[in-house]
From TrEMBL:
<dbReference type="InterPro" id="IPR049119">
    <property type="entry name" value="FlgK_D2-like"/>
</dbReference>
<protein>
    <recommendedName>
        <fullName>Flagellar hook-associated protein 1</fullName>
    </recommendedName>
</protein>
<dbReference type="InterPro" id="IPR010930">
    <property type="entry name" value="Flg_bb/hook_C_dom"/>
</dbReference>
<feature type="domain" description="Flagellar basal body rod protein N-terminal">
    <location>
        <begin position="7"/>
        <end position="34"/>
    </location>
</feature>
<keyword id="KW-0282">Flagellum</keyword>
<keyword id="KW-0969">Cilium</keyword>
<dbReference type="GO" id="GO:0009424">
    <property type="term" value="C:bacterial-type flagellum hook"/>
</dbReference>
<dbReference type="InterPro" id="IPR053927">
    <property type="entry name" value="FlgK_helical"/>
</dbReference>
<dbReference type="GO" id="GO:0005576">
    <property type="term" value="C:extracellular region"/>
</dbReference>
<keyword id="KW-0964">Secreted</keyword>
<dbReference type="Pfam" id="PF22638">
    <property type="entry name" value="FlgK_D1"/>
</dbReference>
<dbReference type="InterPro" id="IPR002371">
    <property type="entry name" value="FlgK"/>
</dbReference>
<dbReference type="GO" id="GO:0005198">
    <property type="term" value="F:structural molecule activity"/>
</dbReference>
<keyword id="KW-0966">Cell projection</keyword>
<dbReference type="InterPro" id="IPR001444">
    <property type="entry name" value="Flag_bb_rod_N"/>
</dbReference>
<keyword id="KW-0975">Bacterial flagellum</keyword>
<dbReference type="GO" id="GO:0044780">
    <property type="term" value="P:bacterial-type flagellum assembly"/>
</dbReference>
Length: 658
């Protein structure tokens, strides 16, 4: 039966636990991850007496933790997205600042290069102007090399941070596994008593883990949790972990992969990793570093190929045809280290106008069948090596036999191009400023013109160095019937032969020539030669096109080189060189602003969710102070009940003693 002593003692013990819990809350009011606690009171079982049921006091049935699992899961997901965007924004900002800096950007160097070519065109015999072209060319090449190295430096830093983040993930996973074991033991040992502080510690670790990678959790029957990353890859299962590692990529040694150790073997999970710092670093590496280097390489390849092509069409002060202005850049083709066969692929640039900023993967299907996948958009091209391998997106592949079905190759047409830009010319006199050919009317031995008409031929221009220098001079003889249909034109001797048509109204000469017999041919004149004729030639008038033997004051090729600044040389002939760089800067700037905007938005959402959870789990010192006073009064009252019971007991003893 309940006694007054028992009732008072139960109240004293229950409120003592309540006071201890309040004190615990106050002590941990600034502890990260702590969830406030409260004591639940239950009435003790009553006893039946003659007048009814007599209460037997109170008991502290449990210590509850204020927490919302659903809200906590939302916070972890938002935290993961926020951390990824913050990582992308932080790293991309450095790249954006570098590219957009007018002092070190590529645009000023490119502008200086073309300005120097323009000055040389104004004074082709000037030694100072020639030297300035070499100086600006060297500066432009150095700037391409500089940006390549800066991109690679950012890649190295990102890879180092990636390795550090993986180590942090593994360390947190180990601690979660330990806490899983402790929580399971505590729960089983304490029956329905919840190990609140251990749960707080584990949830805090999950929050820290979500800053590094997106995680999902699944609670087991023993109250341990499984932690899942990626697309179902287990990181923690009960008290065991499957650690992550950073491993060299089979075909891309510059971009290490993230692997998960399962059953003694490593499984690459890079493509499945999302969210957190890891997801941000992987996104920055692929979307900013790799794509940026490809875009920069596309620009470098376009510059080098177009300048070289034009420079080889001119002659220098020694009377020689111009050579390559810049060192030609190369493309990359690498076999995956996991290939079973011995097949190989080499890649050369064929048409820089058609190059993209993408990497490609070539996969062997068996027989003579390959599939080329453009990684930027997943577009595929079927390749059959039993026929001539076609030029694809501006590059040509040479595929050697020996591959086994499933073998793959990574194709990078422009990745290293910016690092390979270098000036080949050191002698200013080797600048091929003059045009390769000279045009004029036929003269006699004394230099007197022989034509009777008023026709005048322009200086001949070329579109390539094919067939240059000419093996023999080309003589053009005007005829009023070049195709058997009374159309005027010129017969050709010393060249490919045949006839070319002429439009007296415009002075234009048809780019195709007609072999003897007036049958349309399918070949151009040497070097894609073009010229115009003004005035009115007479039948039999002749013009001669010959090699330019002296071009000190000739600026035609310098003008053509300077004109490359405004020529559409990239993206299928739609973008200029400086437009290509502006596109690169704009893309990085756009990505950076997008990452910042999303980061700020997610950061605000995270704050709202954290505040909502704090309303539930956070310690309010004013509330705790009120609880402290309330429980203190209850404790004192319980003590008074015991004191009263003691007084009653002593009174009874005294009465018995008398």
């Amino acid at each position: 039966m309940a006694t007054l002593f028992g009732i008072g003692t139960s109240a004293l013990l229950a409120h003592q636990r309540a006071l201890a819990t309040v004190g615990h809350n106050v002590a941990n009011s600034d502890t990260e991850g702590y969830s406030r606690q409260r004591v639940d009171f239950n009435t003790q079982e009553a006893s039946r007496v003659d007048v009814g049921w007599l209460g037997s006091g109170v008991e502290a049935s449990s210590i509850l933790r204020y927490y919302d699992d659903f809200l906590a899961s939302q916070i972890r997901r938002t935290q993961s997205v926020t951390s990824q965007l913050e990582t992308e924004f932080t790293h991309a900002s450095r790249l954006d600042d570098m590219l957009g800096d007018p002092q070190v950007g590529l645009d000023p160097a490119m502008q200086g290069f073309f300005n120097a070519l323009g000055e040389l065109a104004d004074d082709p015999a000037s030694a100072a102007a020639r030297q300035l072209v070499l100086v600006e060319s060297e500066s432009l090449a150095d700037r391409f090399n500089y940006f390549f190295l800066q991109y690679e430096r950012l890649r190295v830093e990102a890879n180092q941070e990636l390795a550090l983040a993986v180590d942090q993930v593994n360390a947190i996973a180990e601690n979660i596994a330990v806490l899983n074991q402790q929580i399971s033991l505590a729960w089983s040992a304490g029956g329905r008593v919840v190990p609140n502080d251990l749960l707080d510690q584990r949830d805090l670790l999950l929050n820290d883990l979500s800053k590094l990678v997106n995680v999902n959790t699944l609670e087991q029957d023993d109250h341990a949790i499984n932690v899942i990353i990626g697309n179902g890859q287990p990181l923690v299962v009960g008290s065991t972990t499957t650690p992550l590692s950073v491993e060299v990529n089979g075909s891309d040694t510059l971009n290490p992969d993230i692997a998960l150790t399962l059953g003694g073997s490593s499984v690459t999970v890079t493509a499945q990793i999302t969210g957190g710092e890891l997801g941000g670093l992987l996104a920055f590496r692929s979307e900013y570093i790799d794509t940026g280097l490809n875009r920069l390489g596309q620009l470098a390849a376009g510059l080098v190929a177009s300048v070289n092509a034009q420079h080889t069409q001119g002659i220098d002060l020694y009377g020689s045809m111009g050579g390559n202005f810049f060192s030609p850049v190369s493309a990359e083709g690498a076999a995956d280290s996991g290939n079973s066969g011995t097949g190989a692929v080499s890649v050369t640039l064929a048409n820089v106008e058609d190059l993209t900023a993408s990497d490609y993967r070539l996969t062997f299907n068996g027989g003579t069948s390959y599939t080329l996948t453009r990684l930027s958009d997943g577009a595929t091209t079927a390749i059959d090596t039993s026929t001539t391998v076609p030029v694809t997106d501006g590059f040509q592949m040479a595929i050697t036999a020996g591959a086994v079905a499933g073998d793959s190759f990574l194709i990078r047409p422009t990745r290293s191009a910016a690092n390979e830009v270098s000036l080949l010319i050191t002698d200013p006199n080797r600048l091929a400023v003059a045009g390769a050919l000279r045009s004029g009317e036929v003269t006699d031995a004394a230099g007197n013109p022989l034509n009777s008409g008023s026709g005048v031929i322009s200086q001949a221009a070329t579109s390539s160095a094919t067939g240059l220098p000419l093996a023999a001079s080309i003589t053009l003889t005007y005829t009023t019937d070049a195709d058997g249909s009374s159309n005027p034109g010129f017969s050709i001797s010393g060249g490919p032969g045949g006839y070319i048509l002429y439009n007296p109204a415009t002075g234009e000469v048809d780019g195709k020539d007609f072999p003897d017999g007036s049958v349309p041919g399918q070949f151009d004149l040497y070097g894609g030669l073009s010229f115009r004729v003004s005035g009115t030639p007479s039948a039999g008038d002749q013009f001669i096109i010959t090699n330019n033997s002296g071009g000190r004051a000739d600026n035609r090729n310098a003008l053509a080189l300077a004109a490359l600044q405004s020529a559409d040389l990239l993206n299928g002939g739609t973008t200029t060189l400086q437009g290509g760089y502006a596109q690169l800067v704009a893309e990085v700037g756009s990505y950076t602003r997008h990452a910042e905007t999303n980061f700020r938005s997610q950061e605000g959402l995270l704050t709202i969710q954290q505040d909502a959870l704090f309303e539930i789990s956070g310690v309010n010192l004013d509330e705790e102070a009120a609880n402290l006073a309330r429980y203190q009064q209850a404790y004192q009252a319980a003590a008074q009940v015991i004191n009263t019971a003691n007084t009653i007991f002593e009174t009874l003893l005294s009465a018995i003693g008398r």
